[in-house]
């Protein structure tokens, strides 16, 4: 129902902010360590020792920050397990593993491969992803994904998240909230698939069936 989706949306937003903060902290730490290495191999010169000390202090502070971010994320993960809309709760509540015959692909990809895959996917399907992001009714979303099952994937979810951030920056709040709903729906399907160890394309119909039974469609469509 509406309240459940709003809680899911709020929780997801918090999770994204923490992940973003953690990534940024790791990036700064890597940059700091790179500068330290450069200084260590550089020729002796005025101020080298002082600069190195400053960088070491900065690196230590960033390590502490990184630990703090990771602790917050761990707390959030524990909290997520107890949520009434957690994927495990949903799967126990009527999703049966036996109805799926498509196995989830468990192939680890490098960051570079993921980025390349995301870029080529967006170039090919951006128009379709945006169309999905604007749908308001459960039935419309289900039908659109049935017609375009290739959209049920991580790349679509990632694109929608970035689109939400862009809309928020542009202060298009109403539009951002609409797209955020669809982002949550896609992320929820992916989480459910992960929990059941199946391909997301094999369980999105069951997701919609279950969610429609649980509550009315969101939005005014």
From TrEMBL:
Pfam family, one: CDC37_M
Occurrences of domain Cdc37 Hsp90 binding (ranges): 91-219
Annotated localization: Cytoplasm
Entries under InterPro entries matching the protein: Cdc37, Cdc37_Hsp90-bd, Cdc37_Hsp90-bd_sf, Cdc37_N_dom
The UniProt record lists the keyword Signal: no
Swiss-Prot/TrEMBL keywords: Chaperone, Coiled coil, Cytoplasm
Coiled coil: 8-124
Domain Cdc37 N-terminal: 2-98
Similarity comment: family membership: Belongs to the CDC37 family.
Known partners and oligomeric status: Forms a complex with Hsp90.
Name recorded for this polypeptide: Hsp90 co-chaperone Cdc37
């Amino acid at each position: 129902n509406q309240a459940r989706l709003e809680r899911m949306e709020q929780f997801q937003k918090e999770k994204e902010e923490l992940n973003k903060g953690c990534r940024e902290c790791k990036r700064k730490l890597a940059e700091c360590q790179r500068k330290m290495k450069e200084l260590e191999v550089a020729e002796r010169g005025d101020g080298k020792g002082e600069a190195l000390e400053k960088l070491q202090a900065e690196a230590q502070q960033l390590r502490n920050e990184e630990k703090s971010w990771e602790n917050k994320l761990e707390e959030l993960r524990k909290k997520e397990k107890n949520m009434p809309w957690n994927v495990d709760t949903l799967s126990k509540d009527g999703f049966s593993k036996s109805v799926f015959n498509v196995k989830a692909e468990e192939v680890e990809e490098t960051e570079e491969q993921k980025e390349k895959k995301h870029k080529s996917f967006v170039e090919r399907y951006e128009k379709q992803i945006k169309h999905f992001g604007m749908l308001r009714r459960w039935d419309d979303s289900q039908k659109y994904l049935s017609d375009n099952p290739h959209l049920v994937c991580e790349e679509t979810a990632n694109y929608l998240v970035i689109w939400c951030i862009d809309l928020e920056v542009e202060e298009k709040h109403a539009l951002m909230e609409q797209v955020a709903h669809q982002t949550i729906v896609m992320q929820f399907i992916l989480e459910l698939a992960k929990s059941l160890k199946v391909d997301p394309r094999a369980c999105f119909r069951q997701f919609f069936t279950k969610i429609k039974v649980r509550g009315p469609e969101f939005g005014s469509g």
